[in-house]
Design brief:
With 437 residues, the protein is of the alpha+beta class. The chain has 13 helices and 17 strands. β1, α1 and β2 form a beta-alpha-beta unit. The structure holds flavin-adenine dinucleotide.
Length: 437
């Protein structure tokens, strides 16, 4: 009998999770990482599964999107998640880890598997056979160039500059209206108007708000690619009013009132419940985005399901290239996983490593691959990244806006979340039974 083997490239969160899921099911794994001989600009620890920035893996509360994702991962026996719980430090409702201890423990577990063979090497072209590519947001140049050659060259991106995304149900529509500029369009925009006084308050807070410090390797390429809204604002009090907050052609459709400035929100392609802030690429800290953007009257109680980010990030155009199994559409032996697959965040990257690992095992055993619906948080993220509009693709994190709505209308928010959670966990449990250990 021939040995069933998978090459996993990258021993980060996704790569370690994938390797664990494969190894515990008896598959031979060749796990490659450039470390410890060389490091990407954000990595410095010789151990695997390095947490590069914040040590928070977000909420564990089951009524939150990240809490539900964690529960689903726990049911799937995620190595990264259980190690995170073992190495947690007090952080209220959030799961935060001692990053050194966490990386050491993941490394020890991975190295304890006799069927995982670790190879310290910079991979510059993909090996033969079944491969999971999980080299993350800082995939090295040579491998990126190789990926470009096997993908379509304009489907690999090197930085992420995205605007905040808002849950529609939290927009105050008594202070907003649907209208396209000069009524040219099909009603895809929600307009959030401001008086002069409201605009000036917003403007002053915006230019003085706290920004994220970009790393040296990020500065040049990101700022050349896209200007953050707060930097555009520093060019003069009216610069935004002649740019993304231009009020012309946006008079109120019924009262005909004219406004001093108007923030536009555009529907996130096929997900009606999510709207992004047009022209609001931003480098403000998440706390400051919430504080300053909530000064826009229609957004005073808005829930930001995803904050704007501007950072170095290598990711593929998932809707164009990826199946919902994390396999490339044009090559079923190649799985793209982790941040590189177009998911955003530590737990999301872990999730994609986990699903890729299980699917690679199922593929080698000629069994049907996992196929989670958008009733689960895992399936919702996968289905979003693989089916949203390719032209505007930006990475996505866990949030309830992408989860399928319940068939019944429930007003009580707590009860509604409970039903969504129960429905998701039931489906995950059923899928797990079909895979086996
Ligand atoms: C600076 C920065 C800060 C971030 N901050 C956060 C945050 O605070 N919260 C959050 O949720 N997410 C954050 N992210 C996003 C993302 O969630 C993390 O980067 C996450 O670690 C991604 O997991 P991954 O497994 O895809 O990649 P990684 O964890 O980065 O793992 C990739 C591995 O591949 C290796 N590698 C790279 N190229 C090669 C090659 N050619 N050959 C062999 N090995 C290679 C690397 O050494 C690394 O070990 C941040 C990203 C960056 C870049």
């Amino acid at each position: 009998m021939t040995t069933k083997k998978v090459s996993v490239i990258g021993a980060g969160l996704a790569g370690c999770e994938a390797s664990y899921q494969l190894a515990k099911r008896g598959i031979e794994v060749d796990l490659y990482d450039i470390k410890p001989t060389k490091f990407t600009p954000a990595h410095s620890n010789s151990n695997f599964a390095e947490i590069v920035c914040s040590n928070s893996l977000k909420s564990t509360d089951l009524n939150t999107a990240s809490g539900l994702l964690k529960k689903e991962l726990e049911l799937f026996d995620s190595l990264i998640l259980k190690t995170a719980y073992n190495c947690s430090v007090p952080a209220g409702n959030a799961l935060a880890v001692d990053r050194e201890k966490f990386a050491e423990e993941v490394t020890n577990t991975i190295k304890s598997f006799k069927n995982i063979n670790f190879i310290s090497k910079e991979v510059t072209s993909l090996p033969e056979g079944v491969v999971i590519v999980a080299t993350g947001p800082l995939t090295t140049n040579d491998l990126s160039n190789h990926l470009k050659s096997i993908l379509d060259s304009d489907t690999l991106y090197f930085y992420d500059a995205s605007s905040p995304i808002i849950d529609f149900s939290t927009i105050d529509m008594t202070n907003a209206y649907v209208k396209d500029r000069y009524d040219k369009g099909s009603g895809d925009y929600i307009n959030c108007p401001m008086t002069k006084e409201e605009y000036l308050t917003f403007y002053n807070e915006l230019i003085n708000a706290k920004r994220v410090e970009l790393k040296d390797f990020e500065k040049k390429e990101i700022f050349e690619g896209c200007m953050p809204v707060e930097i555009m604002a520093t060019r003069g009090e009216d610069s935004l009013r002649f740019g993304p907050l231009k009020p012309v052609g946006l008079d109120h459709p019924i009262t005909k009132q004219k406004y001093y400035a108007v923030v536009q929100l555009r529907k996130e392609d096929n997900v009606n419940s999510l709207y992004n802030m047009v022209g609001f690429q931003t480098n403000l800290t998440f706390g400051e985005q919430k504080r300053v953007f909530s000064l826009i009257p229609a957004l005073k109680n808005a829930t930001f399901v995803k904050y704007g980010v501007m950072h170095r990030n290598t990711f593929i155009n998932a809707p164009k290239l990826l199946r919902n199994t994390f396999q490339l559409k044009n090559n079923e032996k190649i799985f793209i996983s982790g941040q590189l697959s177009g998911v955003e965040g530590y737990m999301e990257s872990t999730m994609s490593g986990l699903i890729s690992g299980i699917n690679a095992y199922l593929y080698l055993n000629e069994k049907p691959l996992l196929n989670l619906s958008s009733k689960t948080m895992t399936g919702a993220i996968i289905n979003y990244i693989t089916t949203c509009e390719a032209k505007k693709f930006q990475p996505m994190n866990a949030n309830f806006g992408i989860v399928s709505p319940l068939s019944e209308r429930i007003k009580d928010d707590k009860l509604k979340k409970q039903k969504i959670v129960d429905r998701a966990l039931e489906e995950v449990n059923n899928q797990i039974k079909s895979v086996g250990e």
